[in-house]
Amino acid sequence: MNPESSTSSDRSGLSRRTVLTAGVGAAAGIALAGAGVLGAGMVPAAFAAPPWWAKLSSRQQAGQRIIFSYPGATPPQTLLDAIAAGTVGGVIFFGENITSLDQIASVVAQLRAAQASSPVKEPLLFMTDQEGGLIRRLRGQEPVLSEKQIGLAADPDAAATAAGSGAAAALRNVGMNLNLAPVLDVFRTPGNFDDQFQRSYSSDPALAGRLGADFVRAQQGAGVAATSKHFPGLGAATADENTDLGPVTLSQPLAEVRSVDESAFVPAIAAGVQLVMTSWAIYPAVDALYPAGISSAIVQGELRGRLGFNGVTITDALEAGALDAFGDTGNRALLSAQAGMDLLLCSARDMTQGMDALDAITAAVDSKTLNPGHFKQSLSRVQSLRVSLF
Q1: Is 183 left (phi over 0), alpha (psi -120 to 50) or beta?
Q2: Residue 111: is its pLDDT beyond 50?
């Protein structure tokens, strides 16, 4: 998330992807078993259990990729009903949703109870931005130190590890299982976009990457998923270049994008970070037309192809001003999914936004506008993430 949607003073409504017939398969399986090819305990493919999503309608399948948000302290009945219907993948919480630790813990419990009657039994993704320092939705909770303070600490690795453990404890305490942190942007100049809110560990990509990996290992070791953001990096953005408010173009050469910005994500990926959030900036050295989160050259080429990330991708806020030229919520959601984004973040604190994304992805699944094979791969990644969480 960008600072306009990540500071402690949230503002509601502001901005923020050839089957054999059973008879043939069965015959082949029996023949292989008779010839001793199938090992002990192996089940012929024709008799294997269907994939988990086969039990869901296309709308329910689409819903597993949508992250909803809502205004105020009380979740609306429309959200509870959508969860029970199996059309919600997760919920993001902002400061306006949280009046106290007890209150938000009760809300999460209420949402989990709604999930109990859903056809989808895997845990919902309950997430927030608990980065540290100024950016903490759970006010007064760890991490107390900002990323910049960690980077300047006498023992920055210990501080980053403590921050990851502290963030996990704070989130688990209220029932949340996913943190939209750490930020791995490598800031260029003091006071720029990241540095003004102390959201960058360092201007040294090696140090930023190492500390981010420390945070990831500690947090995920405590059972809370981590999210490295904002790929391929917003560290070159000036103080006035905010994708929440409008288009941002970062024109550093490809060599710099890779050796500085992307390189900070490498240690976190090696550490097993479960999610990566893309930015909404345009990087002409990679793709001159599309912001990162709707650019297959960045998502599939750089992140998955070049860096080998196999986990879950998540968009930044779909309501961001940087996407004004790319249509309404439904079109933005579709473009993101087509580019390879797994989770679509509807963070405008408006249930209608999530429903619009859900409608668009459902229609794209039904019409096969989204590649069916790619869609199922995305569902599988999301499923693997959710079964690993509480």
Answers
A1: beta
A2: yes
User: Which of 222, 221, 230 is closest to 181 using CA atoms?
Assistant: 230
Tell me which residue has tokens 């199938």. Answer: 38
**C-alpha to C-alpha distance for 207 and 366, rounded to whole angstroms:** 46
Tell which wins on pLDDT, 285 or 25.
285
Listed by start position, the domains of the chain span: 19-48, 57-387
**Yes or no: domain 57-387 corresponds to CATH 3.20.20.300:** yes
In angstroms, the CA 370 to CA 304 distance is 19
**Is the pLDDT reported for residue 42 higher than 90?**
no
Quick one: average pLDDT of 364-374? 97
Residue 170 CA to its chain's centroid (Å): 19
Report CA Rg, the chain. 21
Q: How far apart are the C-alpha atoms of 333 and 66, rounded to whole Å? A: 9
Cα-to-chain-centroid distance, residue 67: 9
Q: What is the rounded average pLDDT of the residues 29-52?
A: 47
